[in-house]
């Protein structure tokens, strides 16, 4: 239920549902792609299940479009938060574009 007593709908309900789906999978690793990077944080979209979360560790040196392996470290169903930590597997980050070359 939302603050007004009505059931939640829209983006917040979807985020909370995704967090609930993953609650039993904390500690598992997932392949994903960096979907956002700014001063506010770095986000990754994992492929299976298709969800997005914040990278709270190991986000240094990654850029939007990079393929990464992440470990699920926590969820907050009520707030719809999904937190990942990047893990090094093999050569590390697989870039989809050359470093230092701006994308158009």
Short description:
This protein has one helix spanning 11-22; strands at residues 29-38, 41-46, 51-57, 67-76, 81-87. It has a single domain (11-87), classed as Nucleic acid-binding proteins (OB fold (Dihydrolipoamide Acetyltransferase, E2P)). It has 104 residues and is mostly beta strands.
Verbal overview:
By secondary structure, the protein is mainly β. It has a single domain (11-87), classed as Nucleic acid-binding proteins (OB fold (Dihydrolipoamide Acetyltransferase, E2P)). Helix content is 12%, strand content 38%. It has one helix spanning 11-22, and strands spanning 29-38, 41-46, 51-57, 67-76, 81-87. The longest helix is centred in the N-terminal third of the chain and has 12 residues, at 11-22.
Helix/strand/pairing class, anyone?
A: mainly beta
CATH class: Mainly Beta
Kindly state the percentage of residues in helix.
10-25%
Distance between the termini: 43 Å
Describe the secondary structure blueprint for this structure:
Layout: H1 11-22, E1 29-38, E2 41-46, E3 51-57, E4 67-76, E5 81-87
Parallel strand pairs: 3-5
Antiparallel strand pairs: 1-2, 1-4, 2-3, 4-5
